[in-house]
Amino acid sequence: MKFINFSDGDEPINSGVSGFRKLRPAEHVSGPYKIWELSDDQGWRYDYHWKRPHEALNPIGLYDVEDVIVTRPGGLILNRFIGYNNATGRDNQRSIPPHDDYINLSGRNKVIIDEPIIVADGVAFDVWGHWIVDYLPRFGVVRDFYLADFFDLKVLLPAYAPAWVTEFLKISCGVMEENILKYNPDSDVVLCRRAIVPSYCYTEEFAFHSYVKDFYRSFALTPPSPKTPEKILVSRGNQSGSNRLFPNRDAFENMARERGYQIIRPEELSIPEQINVFSRSSVVIGEHGSGMHSAVFCGKGTVVGCIGFWNAVQLHIGYLMEHRNVYLTRGCLWPTPERNEYVIDVTIEDLVSFFDKIDAMTTDASSE
Q1: How many folded domains does the chain comprise?
Q2: Which pLDDT tens digit goes with each residue over 12-23?
Q3: In this structure, are 201 and 242 located in the same domain?
Q4: CA–CA separation, 74 vs 342, rounded Å?
Q5: For 215-230, what is each residue's pLDDT tens digit?
Q6: What residue numbers bound the domain in which 122 lies?
Q7: What is the pLDDT of residue 95?
Q8: Cα 1 to chain center, whole Å?
Q9: Which of 112, 197, 222, 237 could in theory staple to 280 by disulfide, Cβ–Cβ 3.0 to 4.6 A?
Q10: How far is CA 57 from CA 7, 27, 137, 208, 241, in A?
């Protein structure tokens, strides 16, 4: 079985796939920039992080693809060919048998869509951070390529996509609910006679194209006041069943309150409220993870402080959006086969130092 990557702008060899329709050219990545970090092997250090972004970024655009078979979010089948988008899609498709005519051999309910339809979601489609990083900008690519014709196109989504996905697509791209067609990945196999497949908007491990910045800057922003900067802590305290162990979470949030931070729980806010609160904040702190990715709505110079470091997403959002990044990673441990938990065993002293560092940075900025 041959794998085709729909993310790098290469010309495909299958006759059912159009040439790459470029929206924005390849470019050089933003960053890296120096960050502050308090880690296990040293005190506070202002330096470049060892995890560097990929320098040469792929172009941004889309393909028109004939007779695409969709079996689940994150993978497409073209006869004996499998199309995938970036890192998550390929692994997701390895379990699909290499049938020459999958849809005819499948025992699932067959759904055939004749009109042009956008296929741009993927694995973990019900996770907020994946929509911020992976999927929402892809719909923006189609919107900006097709312009007015975009609003006549259909969108394919899983039937059990959360309601906020529909709201997010409407707010960001103007997708109306009546243009969303849904299927059940557990029981349906979908044949799209003409699928519109946009590229992802990053290269390798989340090295973002500048299009992502322009896309999120197109949302209405409320710049923070230079005299009374708003500071928020993104709380994960309401997530029961989480595999994160953070014994001093309550102390972390109490310290934040004492220092004038607003504690927000994104799941309790509407999408416009989330966009507004992040847009007007000059300091955003929290545990490293999906909720912090809403910092894409923050302006240039925002101080973004994370407890823990699990991947490069937040770091590279900071490079792209010109944030000032602060990390407390001392005492933070990855899951192991014996312990399926992210451990955030930071001390009270290190939390105080974390807040002091951020206070110093905001004081320096306000005096500039």
Answers
A1: 2
A2: 555 567 788 999
A3: no
A4: 26
A5: 999 876 666 666 566 8
A6: 2-20+59-210
A7: 52
A8: 29
A9: 222
A10: 11, 5, 15, 8, 37
